[in-house]
Specification:
single chain; 553 residues; Alkaline Phosphatase, subunit A; ten-stranded mixed β-sheet; 22 helices; binds zinc ion
Amino acid sequence: MRFLLSLVLGFLLLNCNAQNNISETKTQTETVLNATPKLVVGIVVDQMRYDYLTRFYSKYGNGGFKRLINDGYNCKNNHYNYVPTYTGPGHASIFTGTSPKNHGIIANYWYDKFNKEDVYCAGDSSVVPVGSASKSERMSPYRMKTTTFADENRLFTQMKGKTIGISIKDRGAILPAGHSANAAYWFRGRDEGNFITSSYYMDNLPKWVQDFNVSNAAESYLREWNTLYDINTYTESGSDLNTFEGGFKGKEQAIFPYDLATLKDKNRGFDIIKATPFGNSIVTDFAIQAIIAEELGLDSITDVLTVSFSSPDYVGHNFGVNSKEVEDTYIRLDKDLDRLFKVLDEKVGVGQYTLFLTADHGAVDVPSYLQSAKIPSGYFDNDAFKVQLDAFLFEEFRASDLVEKISNDQIFLNKNRLKQLNLNLENVQYVIVNEVINYKNIDKVYSSQTMQNGAFHSGIETLLQNGYHQKRSGDIIMVKDPAVISYSKTGSTHGSGSNFDTHVPLLFYGNGIKKGSTLTKTKITDIAPTISALLGISFPNGSTGNVLDFVID
Ligand code: ZN
Ligand code: ZN
């Protein structure tokens, strides 16, 4: 009896221990499995080079960029791993965790070789704009072939976790939010000055968006743009008056101050706001309204908010990397970020949200400025190039229409014509590669065969291959010399595989994120798998990046 009792007791104890062990392991496993932020905020700053963090550091306050740098995790050596470094592909790659090779957004605009037409990355003729009288704002994410982490969060939460995408640019709102988003809103300038969407998401704007639009928010930003601080303290940029800047129509020189109310009529109405720091401010105002009205991050089910600040890109294109206008834009963006973070602290709670900030590409210093500093750079004339190539092909094959299209530094050949003339595609490609490599300012030329069959592990060839989509890309892929652009002689642009275009900030902050920094090279495609791993959700279906486990707490 006593033996039996001790046996039963022993069994009970054992059982109890086992249960303790199970519950112990369970809590341990739960803390390791995933973080549970109420809200993930993905911020993209359009055209932000990495060195804008360091160059303007002394001008930033403690609540904006510096808060993310000092209290979050700073990946200092973060790069794009494909070309071309444009806005559409950039936003798609950040949120899908893969490159154009898989998500299919090979550029902003590309040549559809099957339908023989130019297409836009967010264009969709099957939908209509909502909230705009315009006939052109027909937008959806349907050309993007893979899912974003926001899509995976929607699936994981039985569609209970919301997704809202916001930007000045349609593609900056639509591609990050993904296919299953509740809404994507972008800014319609011209004579409207409103945030709008498309019938892909809804049939009518919600009340809070209508209220925002009738509040005359856009009108209030038609004010004077002067430097926030004394212009003489802006020692991190070139002189205000120089020959490398575009400026606004209706004002002779590209110098401060700019009176937007008087310049508006000559610069496409409300579109002028986009090209000033006030574009960032109105996006911040709108994002704050979205957080409040959509109750983002209020319950325990993770929501996703994506905010893309497009205005720095417009300012950079107009005034260039080294301008006072760019410096002022970042000083003011820092203040808008501070304002946004304070609302997140208040409405969602300190430590309750996870945030990252990155950019969709960098930018080149204005080549004419670089030339003045003896740095190799220049301008490439696409039209002259086509004339030269067509003349060569006529000499070689007695046909003047072998090139169907030149787009995004790729040549699309006329396959029907090749067939008619009994010309072998690979042979024609080989001839073109060996011809074009001789042209001025052309650095490298490859055929689609090389992209399909090559096994590259580093360098520009890897970037080209990651940007090459078999069904959407061209037959010949060209690379121009470093800092050689097809662009006006004023202002900056982007698109190359050079470091000034690939090197962008990557800052993580908040729930589940360590404090720290790294100089280890990270890739833009690592962001989405890292956020997915943090949340414990399925990775975006085409994701090819790595989880940055060192940023996760
Ligand atoms: Zn961009
Ligand atoms: Zn741009």
